[in-house]
Amino acid sequence: MDVLNSGDYPLIVNAWYNPLVPSFSVALIHRGVGRIYGLCIGHEHHNPSCSNIGAEIHKHAWSDATRDKDAYLPTDISAGADNPVLALREFFQEANIRHEGVISPIAPRQGTLFS
Amino acid sequence: MTSVDLCAQISSRIGELFSCAAQNGHVRIRTPFLYPDGDVIALFARGDFPLLELSDFGETMRWLAMQTPSERRSKKQRQIIQDVCLTHGVEFFDGMVLLRVRAGDDLPAAVVRLGQAVLRIADLWFTFRLRAFEAATDEVEEFLTEKRVQYVRGERLVGRSGKTWTVDFHAHLPRRSSLVTVLSTGSRGAARGIVEHVVTEWFDLNTLAASQEPMKFISLFDDTEDVWSPEDFRLVEPLSTVSYWSRPDEFYAELVA
């Protein structure tokens, strides 16, 4: 989904849910740079400073030094990986993204990944 | 095989950096390997001997999908994945990297083999179109190669002003040669600047269009991104033939005309 913004930056937001693991990820992507902000539930993370998050939820935030490799433990996400709709809503709220539409429940199967 | 048995086999051979836990009907294996952004690579074991399957459950392709606005892999990226699978003896199926472990096979070695394959596939990240114009030009080059068009990429030409211009492609075809500039950007704000640069380029090089071996100038717009306005196309029209990357066959028709 395109993210309209006052700076006319080429931003999109993509989200993925993998019921096999289960895991859920959502990323704010700048078309010319890559992911600049993101939430991962169901995966652990290791920071470049060698500190581990210690939980299976983390948020990636951009810095010029480390790009999106630094992550932190968020305190504003209550949803688990098995509740992607709530996780997406909570991500939008914290990222100040207004979603004008309907977030439908996850369909049983939605095509293949990055084919 | 229980998660305890599986972990015992793995840790006895390759150490405690690998840890296991039963989860949702399968065994999750935490590896010491990391995706390029620092996310820990986990592998999964499901089934049991005589047929145990190790897989990433599609997490590697999910991770790659999160790094790029592109929804599809390029031919080059597909070739890399095939090569990785061949090297490490793994299978790529339905977005998952997996391998079967049969009774008598070396399970810990299989875990490491799959982990290395996942790592290498994750490095496709380095081939991504993080700079849109480079990737579009790469795609055009692939197209010209497939069409068996002779070309030189990045040719430097001196204009009337004395300024040196780098043209994306000098295509040599039987009827006539063409100079092709690819206009590509992910930003509406940058689009007009790119167009004005190309207008200046074609104007400065226009002696080449009037020589005894006249060159055709082609402005190839990467219109897979909705960043161009009608004025952008009209600006370059007097000086070049406008083509659209969403219609590659028309672009090819202009080259051979």
Tell me what you see in this structure.
The complex is a heterodimer of chains A (115) and B (257). The longest helix of chain A is centred in the C-terminal third of the chain and has 11 residues, at 84-94. Chain A is mainly beta and 115 residues long. Helix content of chain A is 10%, strand content 29%. Chain A is globular and about 40 Å long. Chain A has one helix at residues 84-94, and strands spanning 2-3, 11-18, 23-30, 34-41, 57-61, 71-72. By secondary structure, chain B is of the alpha+beta class. Chain B is 38% helix and 28% strand. In chain B, the strands form 2 sheets. Chain B has a 6-stranded antiparallel beta sheet. In chain B, a hairpin with a 4-residue loop joins strand 8 and strand 9 (177-183). Chain B is elongated, with a radius of gyration of 25 Å. The interface between A and B is large, with 37 and 40 residues.
